[in-house]
Design brief:
The protein has eleven helices and twelve strands. The chain is α+β, with helices and mostly antiparallel strands.
Length: 365
Amino acid sequence: MKLNVKKIACMALSFSMIASLAACSKKDKKDDDSEATGCVAATETLMDAVVSLNAKKIKKLEKELGVDGDALADLEAIADNEFVAAVMEKASFEIDEDSVKEKKKTASVGVTVSLPDYEDAFDEAGDDIDDFKEAIDSQKEKNYQTIDVTVKFEVEDDEYTLSNFSEVCEAIYADMIKALDVEGDVDPTEPTDTEPTDTEPTDTTPVTTDDTTSSTTPAPETKGSLRPVPGKKIDLTQDAFKAAVENADPAAAADVMFMNQTTDIQGYQTVCTGMAFSDSGLIYTYYEFDSEASAKAYADKCMTGIDLIAVSYEKESDYNYCMYMYGDMSIVVYQSGAAMTTILASENTEEICEQVCSFAEGLFK
């Protein structure tokens, strides 16, 4: 399962390549509540992370519930938005244990999330984060809104693996992102005409169509590929980052946002100081680490094993650079000094691959 999004807020990029299928085991009881107890425990683990947006709890989902690492990166991106964080700081959830349904291979349970009326707060405060927080704080819990979600699992060998992470995140956050007028859209599931079953995930890979395609016959899927772009040592700055974005997508460059958002990425303290979003679904990010040693250590971690699939790969003493494709992901990582810039694209169409390559070329002009 992969959370496909048109990305939001500043991106805390996770480079986990393959999700662990480890899951939250059922508790060993012989009474009628044994299975329900396991399902509820697994749901508690999920919702505690999704609602609290705590970085450590989010990371646990990959190991404990089998959530894909790329999907968790999307949730980390949501967590990094100040307006969203202000809303969810006041949020809570309640699991309806009476709604637990257990079958041989699947399980599900209903959950109600309670959170402040973010639309009213945003209408009152606008895009001033301090005023927004005050508006949120002034709301009474009895006036909070609620969101009902159904959490679903696949069950095998007494283990629970989450099967609808995308749907849960979309139900809670899609409308919020739109209402808060944050750059980018959340569209985690990219829904098709039919709902996926608990056991057979639906293929949601986008397809490219043209004007000659019949309305009843989908056009064949169009894939692109990255071309090698050689790197070199540069002084990575906000100006260099913006120039690279402009080389790839002038429209995205016009809306580059610079901020000072402290972010924890896999144990490394960074400040996300720049971000931009492409209409085609790319996220451009610029980070400054607390030291060159930290930036290099994280770059080394990101690039472990990447040389086997990278179209560009340069691991030098004074900079690190790679460009690679993994499944439907197109990714660029460049580190120089204490700074790092990344691209993450959740598709590999010709248009997107061209933008990814153009970004890299813009860096090294």
